[in-house]
Amino acid sequence: MRVDAVTLFPEMVDRPLSESIVGRAREEGYLKLGFSNPRDFTDDRHRTVDDKPYGGGTGMVMMAEPLYKALLKVRKKGSTVILLTPKGRRFDQAVALELAKKKHLIFICGHYEGIDERITPLADLELSIGDYVLTGGEPAAVVVIDAVTRLIPGVLKKSDATVNETFTGGLLEAPHYTRPGVWRGKQVPQALLSGNHKLIQDWRRERAEELTGRNRPDLAPPAAAKKKARAKKILS
Ligand code: 6GU
């Protein structure tokens, strides 16, 4: 997959995506990450990329023209253009799975108070990574590119690592343990040591439901609760 980031701060995106699994994916050619900097598309002496907002207000707004030229440098016929903004649609695993199918993603990272609104119609999708405000779109681009890259076939060596995981099945994942079997007096749950596949599966399902109910009751209700709800409906 090819990904380009339109950003005033390419290092903020490049550096975090140079380590670990994504770094390896780039070395192995699964991900080709490029950058286009609006500052390189200015023609005044100060290389100005922002200006005061019309109508007044605090902060500065990114000007349309340098952003537009930076976008045109990387945009091709099949590109999907994504604008990162706290006003966007909330990013989640379902969106990551959709984006992972694309050939070329372009992320526009806003900074300062935002970007000139006339750039917005050039985006196919506006994305936010959550209900809080960042100083710019760059950390959000890192989050989205990371989540998408690990879904590219071949990036994770064990492909079922993305099948059973948290969010894909509507539940949080059960806890994991590794050696030693006893650590500072704490035992690994017996079920996991049993070698009994059915017992392990049942244990993981129960822990996943319990954890989801405790930390994320907003996610799909656990099977047990669904069963209860069905039973209740039949009876009342
Ligand atoms: Cl994509 N950008 C900014 N500036 N803040 C955010 C965000 C994006 N998503 C959540 N907060």
Count of individual domains? 2
CATH architecture group name of the largest domain: 3-Layer(aba) Sandwich
Overall pLDDT, averaged? 93
N-C termini distance: 53 Å
- Poorly predicted tracts of residues: none
Our estimate of the beta-strand percent is: 15-25%
Shape: elongated
- Count of runs of 4 or more consecutive helical residues: 8
Give the strand line-up of the largest sheet. 2-1-6-5-8
Major beta sheet summary: 5 strands, parallel
Total number of strands: 10
- The CATH homologous superfamily of the largest domain is named SPOUT methyltransferase, trefoil knot domain
Q: Supply Rg.
A: 23 Å
Tell me the structural class: alpha/beta
In short:
By secondary structure, the protein is α/β, with parallel strands linked by helices. The protein is about 35% helix and about 20% strand.
Describe the structure.
This protein has a five-stranded parallel beta sheet with strand order 2-1-6-5-8. A three-stranded mixed beta sheet has the order 3-4-7, with no helix packed on it. A hairpin with a 2-residue loop joins strand 9 and strand 10 (186-187). The chain has 236 residues and is an alpha/beta fold. It starts with a strand and ends with a helix. The longest helix is centred in the C-terminal third of the chain and has 19 residues, at 197-215. It has two domains: 2-149, 3-Layer(aba) Sandwich (Alpha/beta knot), CATH 3.40.1280; 168-235, Orthogonal Bundle (Trp Operon Repressor, Chain A). Helix content is 33%, strand content 18%. It contains eight helices and ten strands. Bound molecules: 6-chloroguanine. Residues 84-86, 127-130, 132-134, 136-137, 140 line the site of 6-chloroguanine (6GU). The site of 6-chloroguanine has 13 residues, from strand 5 and strand 8.
